[in-house]
Amino acid sequence: MSLATIYLTAPDKETALSLARQLLERRAVACVNVVDNATSLFWWKGKIEQENEAVMFCKTRMRDVNRAIEIIKELHPYELPVITTTPILKSSLETIEWADSVLDAGSDAEKEA
Questions:
Q1: What is the pTM of this model?
Q2: What is 3-106's CATH topology?
Protein backbone atom coordinates (compact mmCIF):
# COMPACT_ATOMS: atom_id res chain seq x y z
CA MET A 1 0.00 0.00 0.00
CA SER A 2 1.26 3.47 -0.77
CA LEU A 3 0.46 6.72 1.01
CA ALA A 4 0.10 10.29 -0.23
CA THR A 5 -0.04 13.79 1.18
CA ILE A 6 -2.76 16.11 -0.09
CA TYR A 7 -1.83 19.78 0.22
CA LEU A 8 -4.36 22.61 0.18
CA THR A 9 -5.11 25.92 1.82
CA ALA A 10 -8.24 27.28 3.46
CA PRO A 11 -9.24 30.88 4.17
CA ASP A 12 -8.83 30.48 7.94
CA LYS A 13 -8.17 27.98 10.72
CA GLU A 14 -11.86 27.38 11.46
CA THR A 15 -12.60 26.45 7.84
CA ALA A 16 -9.53 24.20 7.73
CA LEU A 17 -10.59 22.43 10.93
CA SER A 18 -14.11 21.93 9.58
CA LEU A 19 -12.75 20.48 6.33
CA ALA A 20 -10.36 18.27 8.30
CA ARG A 21 -13.15 16.89 10.48
CA GLN A 22 -15.33 16.10 7.46
CA LEU A 23 -12.45 14.31 5.72
CA LEU A 24 -11.68 12.33 8.87
CA GLU A 25 -15.31 11.49 9.66
CA ARG A 26 -15.81 10.23 6.10
CA ARG A 27 -12.57 8.18 6.46
CA ALA A 28 -11.11 9.79 3.33
CA VAL A 29 -7.91 10.66 5.21
CA ALA A 30 -6.11 9.26 8.24
CA CYS A 31 -4.60 12.50 9.54
CA VAL A 32 -4.68 16.25 8.86
CA ASN A 33 -2.16 18.84 10.01
CA VAL A 34 -3.45 22.42 10.02
CA VAL A 35 -0.91 25.25 10.05
CA ASP A 36 -2.47 28.65 10.68
CA ASN A 37 -1.32 32.10 9.57
CA ALA A 38 0.46 31.24 6.33
CA THR A 39 0.93 34.12 3.91
CA SER A 40 0.06 33.20 0.33
CA LEU A 41 0.80 35.23 -2.79
CA PHE A 42 -0.83 34.21 -6.06
CA TRP A 43 -2.22 35.39 -9.37
CA TRP A 44 -6.00 35.80 -9.34
CA LYS A 45 -8.13 37.45 -11.99
CA GLY A 46 -5.25 39.34 -13.57
CA LYS A 47 -3.51 40.63 -10.46
CA ILE A 48 -1.23 39.44 -7.67
CA GLU A 49 -3.10 38.83 -4.43
CA GLN A 50 -1.80 38.32 -0.89
CA GLU A 51 -3.87 36.55 1.75
CA ASN A 52 -3.43 34.94 5.15
CA GLU A 53 -4.55 31.33 4.99
CA ALA A 54 -4.41 28.06 6.87
CA VAL A 55 -2.37 25.29 5.24
CA MET A 56 -3.58 21.70 5.35
CA PHE A 57 -1.51 18.53 4.96
CA CYS A 58 -3.73 15.46 4.70
CA LYS A 59 -2.31 11.93 4.82
CA THR A 60 -4.18 9.14 3.07
CA ARG A 61 -3.74 6.10 0.86
CA MET A 62 -3.12 6.67 -2.84
CA ARG A 63 -6.29 4.73 -3.60
CA ASP A 64 -8.32 7.19 -1.48
CA VAL A 65 -6.89 10.39 -2.99
CA ASN A 66 -9.62 10.93 -5.60
CA ARG A 67 -12.40 10.48 -3.04
CA ALA A 68 -10.70 12.93 -0.65
CA ILE A 69 -10.30 15.49 -3.44
CA GLU A 70 -13.99 15.20 -4.37
CA ILE A 71 -14.98 15.82 -0.74
CA ILE A 72 -12.66 18.84 -0.56
CA LYS A 73 -14.11 20.28 -3.77
CA GLU A 74 -17.67 19.70 -2.48
CA LEU A 75 -17.06 21.50 0.84
CA HIS A 76 -14.37 24.09 0.11
CA PRO A 77 -15.52 27.74 0.05
CA TYR A 78 -13.00 28.85 -2.62
CA GLU A 79 -14.10 29.16 -6.23
CA LEU A 80 -10.91 27.35 -7.21
CA PRO A 81 -9.24 25.54 -4.31
CA VAL A 82 -5.70 24.52 -5.23
CA ILE A 83 -5.36 20.86 -4.27
CA THR A 84 -2.13 18.99 -4.93
CA THR A 85 -1.07 15.45 -4.11
CA THR A 86 2.42 14.13 -3.48
CA PRO A 87 3.18 10.43 -3.10
CA ILE A 88 4.97 9.56 0.12
CA LEU A 89 8.06 7.73 -1.08
CA LYS A 90 9.04 6.19 2.24
CA SER A 91 7.24 5.70 5.53
CA SER A 92 7.56 3.43 8.52
CA LEU A 93 5.66 0.16 8.33
CA GLU A 94 3.83 1.16 11.52
CA THR A 95 2.57 4.38 9.92
CA ILE A 96 1.36 2.52 6.84
CA GLU A 97 -0.40 -0.11 8.95
CA TRP A 98 -2.00 2.57 11.15
CA ALA A 99 -3.30 4.53 8.14
CA ASP A 100 -4.65 1.37 6.57
CA SER A 101 -6.40 0.32 9.78
CA VAL A 102 -8.10 3.67 10.47
CA LEU A 103 -9.23 4.08 6.87
CA ASP A 104 -10.47 0.48 6.67
CA ALA A 105 -12.39 0.97 9.92
CA GLY A 106 -14.78 3.21 7.99
CA SER A 107 -15.42 0.42 5.47
CA ASP A 108 -16.16 -2.02 8.29
CA ALA A 109 -18.58 0.43 9.94
CA GLU A 110 -20.40 0.95 6.63
CA LYS A 111 -20.73 -2.81 6.12
CA GLU A 112 -22.28 -3.19 9.60
CA ALA A 113 -24.79 -0.35 9.11
A1: 0.91
A2: Alpha-Beta Plaits (3.30.70)
